[in-house]
Amino acid sequence: MKQIPMSSPDITQVEISAVDQVMHTPILSIGPQVGAFESRFVSYVGAPYACAVNSGTSGLHLGVIASGIKDGDLAITSPFSFVASANVILYERAIPIFVDVEESTGNIDPALIQECLHDLARSRTAASRWLPAAILDPKFVLDKLKLLLPVHAFGQPADMDPILRAGSEYQIPILEDACEALGAEYKNQKVGTFGKAAVFAFYPNKQMTTGEGGMIVTSEKNWVELFFSLRNQGRDVFDSWLKHSRLGYNYRLDELSSALGLAQISRIEQLLEKRERVAHWYNNRLQTCEHLRIPQIAPTTTRMSWFVYVIRIDSSIDRTAVMQKLEEKGVPSRPYFSPIHLQPFFRDRFGYKPGDFPITEKLGSISLALPFSSIMTEEMVEYVCRTLIDICHNIQ
Ligand SMILES: *Cc1c(COP(=O)(O)O)cnc(C)c1O
Residues lining ligand 1, judged by CB closer than 6 Å? Predict the structure, then answer.
């Protein structure tokens, strides 16, 4: 029986040699590779400045700090995401305001953002509808809102135009969680160039990898200077090794990872094209199956950056049973995403319960990520699809 991997990095001799070369030098951190990786990244994404960090989560944390958010402030974000995009708000003791998503894409719904902002501005009573039950406190009003943190879910851009309008109308900075969307385009413009800052991630299942790693890009010179300091224990450029101008972190990306990242970003187009080809193999085989739905692409998405391949299973079919049967045939799958507000920690801390964000919960209950990577062969995709279609037909 075949065992298909859920995801896989795409590593060639080019990457191996790049890392090997660094291994032959004495400089394994704070050296030339990190700057070279940042320059190359900037020229690909088209944002003015970049700062490499040791994970996507670290990058998002620094982006949240740069927004100036403080204890008890508010940030609007999506509950249909990987948990890190909400956790980074909690790291600064601020409170996420979840806004439900659009059913077609799973991205945050800009109409609901507008409604939320309107209510926060209107009155304390109106605002309370958007605040978590356990934190109902009338002192939370519009002037506490410091950040919009949209997520480009599954490699598809969020609907940025109305989000940007909302941000400028209320003068609230936007931090894009682009961790799943390197290379994706919204109306022919690359994600990462819309907000004041954006973050990409390089865990091994992402479009490119550095092992662990991330990159913050920004249009603000003073923000990137802050990021350089924060990732390096709060040292300023002219500080000596033991002078720390502010509270900082060790969020540095080492030279080995940076060399790997430089090699990967140098062939990112090839990596994205290979992923797109795999997605089309899936689409062609699954689009006629009446029990499931292939990913929906919004008209504003002029380029999808395929991160995962997520189908929706007919709600009359027992998804857990499908996953179980797939597993028996050597095909792993994941119920992706699991809504953030229903994670145990978020329920305990904020009092969230099922029913709070119905679209997110619906998508959470019917979505299924299938094995996906740039190195999948057409034969592997064929096997996964045939197995899945058989299971769906026989399970009823
Ligand atoms: C991968 C990812 C992150 C960051 O992940 P790290 O593992 O910390 O690099 C953040 N947000 C989303 C939506 C992600 O998919």
Answer: 55-57, 81-82, 84-85, 151, 177, 179-180, 201, 203, 214
